Amino acid sequence: MDNQKKEQIKKSGRKPKVDPARHRYSISLNDKENDRFLSLFEKSGMKVMAHFITACMFDRTIKTVKIDMNAVDYHTRLTNLYSQFRSIGVNYNQIVKILYRNFSEKKAAAYLFKLENQTAELAELCRKFIDLTREFEKKHLEK
After folding, report:
1. Distance CA 89, CA 11 (A)
2. Residues 6 or more apart from 95 whose CB is under 8 A from it?
3. What distance, in Å, lies between the first and last C-alpha atoms of the chain?
């Protein structure tokens, strides 16, 4: 009967680890060293400070990710501008079809001439955007 009671008793709680970490060490840092340590820890993106310390001690590669919000903002705005250029292209095709359908050949050609001039100005602006983007990449993104 005692054997049956022992078999029925179930242990609850956390299962023991196979290789528990039992050895603990303590270090002391001054203010300057502590600030440097915390900045490295934040740049690493790790969630647990103990894992970061062991990675530093045993020369594992530590990832530091620096996000330049100006570059992200610039990229977002450039993407929005590109989508606007695409919509202009769609509208351009629709306008040409409407001009030839609703106006005489001579009048449609006159309007198309004006449209071509505006398109040339738009293409020049596009070239300037590309130049500015290359300049921005050279200065800020290749660091």
Report:
1. 71
2. 115
3. 75
**What tokens does 67 get?**
């996000």
CA atoms within 13 A on the CB side of 84: 8
Task: Decide: 8 and 19 in contact? Cβ < 8 Å.
Answer: no
Q: How far is the C-alpha of 136 from the C-alpha of 143, rounded, in Å?
A: 11
Sequence-distant (6+) residues with CB within 8 A of 123 are none
Phi, psi angles (nearest 5°) of residue 80: -65, -40
Residue from 84, 93, 94, 91 nearest 125 by CA: 84
pLDDT in tens, 49-66: 888 888 877 876 666 667
Per-residue pLDDT of 5-30, as tens digits, reads 656 666 778 888 888 888 888 888 89
Q: Which residues contact 96 (CB under 8 A, 6 or more apart)?
A: 112, 115
Amino acid at 28: S
- For residue 53, count other CB atoms closer than 10 A to its CB: 15
